[in-house]
Every structure is written in structure tokens, then in C-alpha cells.
Amino acid sequence: MESSGTQKLITAREAGLVSCTRCSKVWPMEHKTCGRCGGKLVSRDMMSLQRVWAWMAVGLMCYIPANVFPMLNTQVLGKTSGNTIIGGAITLAHHGGYFVALVILLASVAIPVGKFIAVAYLAVSVRRPDMLRNEQRHKLYHFVEFIGRWSMIDVFVVIITSALIQFSVAVTVRPGIAAITFALSVIFTMFAAMSFDPRMIWDNDGRGWPETGNDRNE
Amino acid sequence: MLDTSSTDMAGSSLDEVIACPECDALYHARMPEEGARLVCKRCHHVLIAPQKDAYLHVVSLALTTLFLMGGAIYFPFLGISAAGFENKTSVLKTVMAFLDEGFTVALSIFVAAFIIMIPAIRSILVIYVILPLMMGRKPAPYARTAFRVSEDLRPWSMAEIFIIGCAVALVKIVAYGKVEIGPAFWLFIVLVIVTVLQDISMDRWSIWKALERRS
Hints:
- The complex is a heterodimer of chains A (about 220) and B (about 220).
- Chain A is of the alpha+beta class and about 220 residues long.
- Chain A is built from six helices and six strands, in the order ββαββααααββα.
- In chain A, strands 4-3-6-5 form a four-stranded antiparallel beta sheet. A two-stranded antiparallel sheet of chain A has the order 1-2.
- The longest helix of chain A is centred in the middle third of the chain and has 28 residues, at about 100-125.
- Chain B is an alpha+beta fold.
- Chain B has helices at about 5-10, 55-75, 90-95, 100-135, 145-150, 160-175, 185-200, 205-215; strands at about 15-20, 25-30, 40, 45-50, 75-80, 85-90, 180.
- In chain B, helix 2 packs antiparallel against helix 4, helix 2 runs antiparallel to helix 7 (about 185-200) and helix 4 packs across helix 5.
- Chains A and B meet through strand 2, helix 3, helix 4, helix 5 and strand 5 of A and helix 1, strand 1, strand 3, strand 5 and strand 6 of B.
């Protein structure tokens, strides 16, 4: 039941209050921890952007080796061959597995790359006059938060495939080094998305935050 | 209904106010009717969504998750046979398969955490927090911490992603031989559905309110 009135919304910050993002309880501005759930209270966490960039950087650093090194090592009669994410998808497509190739490319390439761009865009647009309406930025934030975890699909595929394809000396499949760097990249970018404080999207009527000023914890 | 005019806000005590955790808009926290929901006007985040017999539902669904998890990790999950070779695996075996060398150990630990440990820990914590509330008792010691941890772990519980991963792997490995789907595979699918139902039945605001009031 959404309210239908058009009266202006006020935020906790405008009312001189600080809200707990964990349990949505509201406290006077000077409180530092939530008395209900014990969460840390920060009206607007401007440091959050630095954390976003830091996690993003580590995530990106892990994503590069994840694409260069093999995700799966297949051993056929003593001969080992590695398959990278994209190489594996191409091999699958050659054998007619277009749908699976598409799912893997979507989960392992499109989602992570799209996520890097989207998180960077969100973090930049908080500091700039809006290039997109607030609702759309908020939707983008939600989408990024929702979709990020799904990149883990390929790690699970690798684990299941290598646990099953163990035919003694004939054919064995083992996870490659890219499987772990890819998993780490997904974990770090999840932290990046979690570090972002979406409340900043709506501040100053969506005009964002100035680059300067000691606006931490104000 | 919601009234958000500033004059009204100033007059109400902080207990009657709720702030949207995603966009900071203030609302009067009034319990909507069962089944109805309180949704943030501008970012559409669901603030309050009480359900009939929610405690009972949540506890029974969490218990179901635990039982299903027991079966799902133990029973045969997937099998494959080709040219005289046969290989069957359970979820537990899948996770433990790589504990023999370097980096794959870390991989095993991640996967075990995402698909077995974290979903199980969340269920245990939820039962620990909600069961006393369901029976009308005082909250258990450290119930707030337990609920906080359980909520923090939510994005890291990846059973549903694992199932999609299985579907993809299945299509991939049919090239190698005849694939067999074991009972644990179906148990895992039920587990995913139960987890989703449990998350839907949980109204965080009501639970936090109850934990605050009675402790």
C-alpha cells in the first residue's frame, strides 16, 4: 500500500536524525551505534565511496587472471589441456551447446563486466550532477546488488564438472587456477556493491555531493 | 496510511518512526494489516510486510531446510557412466573432492561455505531467534546479535545459484556419457524453494520490534 499523497518526503538526515540501515530504527543524530541491533550509525557514509573503489580495484585485479588462465584442466590419457572462460564457451558452442555457452558467457563475462561499469557509474554519479534520474539510479543499484552473486554459477559448474568427470586414467577434469581468482573476483565485487550507500543517490534532490567539504558523519 | 509531513514527524516519538534503509525517507511506522505491505514511496523498498502466523512459518521452514540439507548433502547427487567407467557423487563428496592440493582447497572451502555451511547456519540462527518469540517467551540471550549475523549472511547463501550451476553442468557433461540424477538433486531443489519461502515470510521490522520490546 503505497501512499498516494504528493506531500514532500523528508529524510531522517533532514529531520536531524540518523537511521540504522540494518533495522531501520531512527536515532538522534549524535548516536553512534544502534541501540536495537548494534549496527554502526552513519547518516551518510562518504568514506563508502573509497571502500567501493578499493573493493572494485581488487575485484578487477582478480578478474584479469580469471580470464587469462584456465578455468578447467582436462586430462585425456595423460595429456593436459586447459580451457579459459571464453575458450571453454567457444569450444562448447562448436559442439552445438549454444545455450550453455550463452549462460556461461552471460554469468562470467557480461555480468561481471557490466557490474564493474555499473558500480563505477554509481560511485561517480553520486559526485556529479545526475546523468540519470534518481529512480533509475536506484534501480541500477538494486539490479547490481541482485545480479552480482549469480556470477558464481561458473565456479559451481567447474566444481561439479571436475567432481564428476573422473574416469581414472582415461579422462579427468580438474579446476584451474582461474576458478579461484574468479570466485575471489565475485566476492570482492559483492563487497564493493555492499559498500555503496544508496541513500546518497537521493540527497540534495539528486544533485549529489560536492567533491570538497568535510561531509563525513555530518 | 503514511503521513510524512514534517510537522507531524516532529511531534512523534522516535519509536513511531521508520526510515527507509535504502533512501532515508521517514515514515510513520504503523503496522499494516496482515498481508498488506508498507512500501517506500520513492524507492519502492518494502519496509514492513507482516504475515499471518509468520513466526510459525519461519521456524518450520527453517527446520525443513536443516532436514533437507542433511539429505541433500549425503545422498547421491549426480552420476555419470561412460565406456565402462562409472562415477557417482554427492554434494559432500563434490565439495571435498579437492582437498588434496593448493589453491583448490580454498575453492572447496568457499563452495562448502556458500552452499552448505551458510544456509545451515542461517537456519539455526533463525530458529534460535524466532522460536522463543513464537512461544511468547523472552528473546534468547544474544538474540539480536544472532539475528544480525543471520541477516548479514543472507547474500552469501547461494543454494539457488548452485542449482542453476548444476543445470548448466548437466548439459555440459552429457557429452561425456550417460548422466544420472540422484535423489539429492531433487532434495536440493526443494531446499531452494523452502529457503525462498522462508525469506518471504520473514518481516524484519516486526522481528526487530519484538526483539526490542521483550528483552
